[in-house]
Specification:
Helix content is 48%, strand content 16%. The chain has 31 helices and 24 strands. Strand 10 and strand 11 (368-369) form a beta hairpin. It is elongated and about 120 Å long.
Length: 898
């Protein structure tokens, strides 16, 4: 591998790039044309024919095809002298098969498009130098020769040769399987035959920067990278079945078994209990009974349920995108809706993440406000210069409008902003005091150190948390420093302290222990990251929804408590705990006290995971926010890992279930509302479909058992399920949130599908449908006078009228029931046109049933009798509307206060 063996000057020469300027736009374009995008090749997608065969092989479809085959056999070998016999029945059944296949393929295509969109939204970004300017580019835009900058938390997006690095460590376990990060060395001389894990001067695509920083030149992209050669993708979004979908699949299997048992009973009742057909007084033909039993076995299964659930989840993902939320793993849609605890970071999520220095203290002077910066003396201005010299943030302007381009940590950006406000020249300072070494910031030390060359020798500058600054204190100075620090912290200011250590010559021992000891304290600054204006409202809304908000931060406990109290997280009786106190608790102690703690300050990444586990041990559904590399374990431990889209590292995004694109706590609460709505709409769909399916089973069995006649026939059942239920059911996905969706407690973890009254709702609907439909059948067959032209059966009953009335009543009642299902509120309190698609689908379906019943050619296909009297139609309409009345009565007595 030539890139490993050759020195960096030769590599840069071969790639024809200046590391200070990077490639220009023309060179980038030319190399993209030559090398293509930095993307892996994807697997071949399933063809249309393969998708069709896949759907045709499903058991419900095979049973429908079998029913069509039986009907075709009857059309060929039996004269079509009876209503329903002949080819129309075959055509209708096969049409239903075709409709199901088309809908299935359509939904799969939508899901594939959604996954493609998610891949684009989840694509990594890289800091690259082009045209002499740092800029952030999509990873797929990288080309050989690009100069990239790497910092802790970045995912490396192309194989690159290091130009320089400082304390750079890379996790290469994705390639080598070694869990320990590798210490990189840009100056290492490596032989070409050295194993991949020992190539210290290279970094590889798909690996993670765990510590330090570096600059590198891209040498290979796309399938030419080591990762590309073994065809592994770290960030592939896969099709995952949600827990709810798995439960629905199990439910469908159980209903299928129930329906098949019902079908067998239908055959037995027809063949053994009533072997003589009451309609014509003749012995039954076995094929007539068989096709009814087979059709029942399929029709009683809610075939449109999986498709509608997919639509609801897809619409939930769409709504979350509109709420600045990207769903990386689809289970998060339903899980976020049941969240009961939000463990949120403070900085940038609950606050603005736009730090501003408000106070400056130099040890030789009294503290001063930044509002008086025009009067800063030389020492105070030098203090800001020292802080800036120990910072990596940059603020640049580019473009015709001098648009500001900010890269770096918010704390460091605040320092650079003040430097600019003081009209100090950072570029000149970097030339006068060039940086020669760096110990990067990490969450364990909570500080960083840089070494600079000066006119008098060298100086080590350390900035970081006040309690971690390596100063050799005298008691008087330490006392004063603590007093000023606490006064800043009480104002909710973040305190950054600074110290220096001078050397006559470049220090030879560059270890942490040597450089970060025996420092001279120089002072501190207090900066504020004000709460977002909407944070207090969002916390209050979450509390009303039964959701506990917990603040977890690396800030000082006084600062954290002040912000938490201001926005309503820390209430009377709640505790704020520091990491030092938390570390003394064992797991049982944390479990016992976790409900009373609202603020955790100065915590380690391991502490975050323990906090999540303590809440989940109580059976709570936990959403955890994070933006750093070390947040990944806690994000994975939580039920819903929430990464920050702006400040989040690629590692945290990769570990998360969802990404908040605006880093705003209020967005999480909005996402919970969307998740609850999606889950509610799925439950509404289940209630809407299953109440009819269960009723159909009971209606057919009761009719066949007691009178030997099925009140509903095969094609009528299929028509009701596919048209009367299926078409309006699709539009439940677009139902708006219930008025009190964020004023009720979340469902407990592990709650079943039929929990929270859903089972009762389905049972009520099924009982009502059964009574109304059987009532229509018996009225038409035995009670109401028959219009002229109808002939009674041998026993004097008018079964054809009864069957027709049962079909119309169940078809209309099932459609009308959607207005009961769509809201817990009375229909008189809900805007009927709020979901126009649902309203017009319901109206169209009712009209379609009317057309079927009144148009002789269509009615003949579905075994519906035309010529019914006005009395019959009034009774059918009245019975169907009773479903709405019963629903309103149920809401009146059982849904009060909702």
């Amino acid at each position: 591998m030539i890139w490993v063996k050759e020195n960096i000057e030769e590599v840069l020469q071969k790639l024809e790039v200046n590391p200070a300027q990077g490639l220009n736009s023309d060179e980038v374009q030319a190399r993209q044309t030559k090398y293509g995008l930095n993307e892996f090749e994807e697997d071949t997608k399933e063809t249309l024919m393969q998708k069709i065969l896949h759907h045709l092989a499903e058991i419900p479809t095979l049973i429908l095809i079998a029913a069509a085959a039986i009907a075709a056999y009857m059309a060929i070998f039996n004269p079509p002298d009876t209503i329903g016999r002949g080819w129309p029945k075959v055509i209708v059944i096969l049409s239903i098969v075709i409709i199901n296949v088309i809908l299935g393929i359509y939904q799969e295509s939508k899901a594939e498009k959604a996954l493609d969109a998610l891949k684009k939204m989840n694509s990594f970004k890289t800091t690259v130098i082009r045209n002499g300017i740092k800029q952030i580019e999509e990873a797929n835009q990288l080309v050989p020769g690009d100069i990239v900058e790497l910092t802790a938390g970045d995912v490396i997006t192309a194989d690159s040769r290091l130009i320089s690095c400082a304390s750079l460590q890379v996790d290469e376990s994705a390639l080598t399987g070694e869990s320990q990060p590798v210490d990189k060395d840009s100056a290492a001389e490596i032989e070409e035959s050295v194993p991949l894990g020992d190539r210290l001067n290279m970094v590889y695509s798909g690996c993670l920067v765990t510590n330090g920083s570096g600059t590198a030149v891209v040498v290979e992209t796309a399938m030419e990278t080591e990762m590309g050669r073994i065809a592994q993708l770290l960030n592939t979004t896969q099709k995952l079945k949600t827990p709810l979908q798995l439960r629905l699949k199990q439910l469908a299997k159980r209903i299928s078994v129930l329906a098949l048992i019902a079908g067998v009973l239908m055959v037995l009742f027809g063949a053994l209990v009533h072997p003589i057909n009451p309609i014509d007084g003749n012995p039954r033909e076995f094929l007539d009974i068989l096709i009814l039993g087979v059709a029942l076995g399929v029709a009683a299964v809610p075939e449109t349920l999986p498709i509608i659930v997919t639509m609801v989840l897809s619409y939930g993902v769409y709504n979350m995108v509109n709420k600045n939320t990207i769903i990386r793993r689809i289970p998060a849609v339903e899980t976020i809706g049941n969240t009961s605890v939000i463990c949120s970071d403070k900085t940038g999520t609950l606050t603005m993440n736009k730090m501003k220095i408000q106070n400056v203290w130099h040890v030789r002077h009294e503290p001063v406000s930044v509002s008086e910066k025009e009067n800063f003396n030389t020492d105070q201005r030098m203090l800001i210069e020292l802080l800036a010299s120990c910072s990596n943030a940059t603020i640049e302007a580019y473009g015709e409008d001098n648009e500001e381009h900010v890269i770096g940590d918010p704390t460091e950006i605040a320092i650079i902003r003040l430097l600019h406000d003081l009209k100090l020249d950072r570029v000149q300072a970097e030339r006068d005091y060039p940086r020669v070494f760096e110990l990067p910031f990490d969450s364990g030390r909570k500080r960083m150190t840089t070494v600079h060359r000066t006119e008098d020798g060298y100086i080590a500058v350390t900035k970081g948390a006040f309690d971690r600054i390596p100063v050799k204190w005298d008691s008087e100075l330490q006392k004063k420093a603590i007093e000023i620090h606490d006064s800043y912290a009480e104002k909710a200011l973040r305190v950054i302290a600074i110290s220096i250590k001078k050397y006559d010559e470049m220090p030879t021992d560059l270890s942490i222990e040597a450089l970060e000891s025996g420092h001279e304290f120089r002072g501190m600054v207090g900066m504020i990251d004000p709460p977002r204006p909407e944070s207090a409202r969002a916390v209050a809304e979450a509390r009303e929804a039964g959701i506990k908000t917990v603040m977890i931060t690396g800030d000082h406990i006084v600062t954290a408590a002040a912000i938490a109290k201001e926005i309503g997280i820390l209430e009377d009786g709640d505790k704020a705990v520091a990491g030092s106190e938390l570390s003394k608790m064992d797991d049982q102690e944390l479990f016992d006290s976790v409900r009373g703690i609202s603020v955790y300050a100065r915590v380690s990444p391991e502490d975050k995971t323990r906090i999540v586990q303590a809440w989940t041990a109580h059976g709570e559904v936990v959403a955890m926010t994070g933006d750093g590399v070390n947040d990944a374990p806690a994000l994975k431990a939580a039920d819903v890992g929430v990464a920050m889209g702006i400040t989040g590292t690629e590692v945290s995004k990769n570990a998360a279930d969802m990404i908040i694109t605006d880093d705003n706590f209020a967005t999480i609460v909005d996402a919970i509302s969307v998740g609850r709505t999606a889950y509610d709409n799925i439950r509404k769909t289940i209630a809407f479909l299953l109440s009819v399916n269960f009723a159909e089973i009971f209606i057919l069995l009761a009719g066949m058992l007691f009178v030997g006649v099925s009140p509903l026939l095969a094609l009528q059942i299929l028509l009701i399920n596919v048209v009367s239920d299926g078409i309006p059911g699709f539009f439940i996905a677009f139902e708006a949130p219930e008025a009190g969706v964020m004023r009720r407690k979340p469902l407990r973890k592990g709650s079943g599908i039929f929990s929270a009254g859903l089972g009762i709702k389905i049972a009520r609907g099924a009982i009502c449908f059964s009574i109304l439909t059987l009532g229509a059948f018996f009225l038409g067959a035995y009670v109401l006078p028959a219009p002229a032209g109808f002939s009674p059966s041998p026993n004097g009953a008018f079964y054809d009228i009864g069957i027709s009335m049962a079909f119309v009543v169940l078809s209309w009642a099932s459609v009308i029931n959607i207005f009961n299902i769509r809201s817990e509120q009375s229909i008189f309190k809900v805007n009927m046109m709020a979901n126009k698609g649902l309203f017009f689908a319901a109206a169209g379906t009712i009209l379609f049933t009317l057309v079927v019943a009144l148009t002789p050619p269509i009615a003949e296909v579905f075994d519906v009798s035309t010529g019914l009297s006005g009395q019959h139609w009034i009774i059918m309409a009245g019975l169907a509307l009773l479903q709405l009345v019963i629903g309103e009565v149920h809401k009146l007595f059982f849904s009060r206060g909702k």
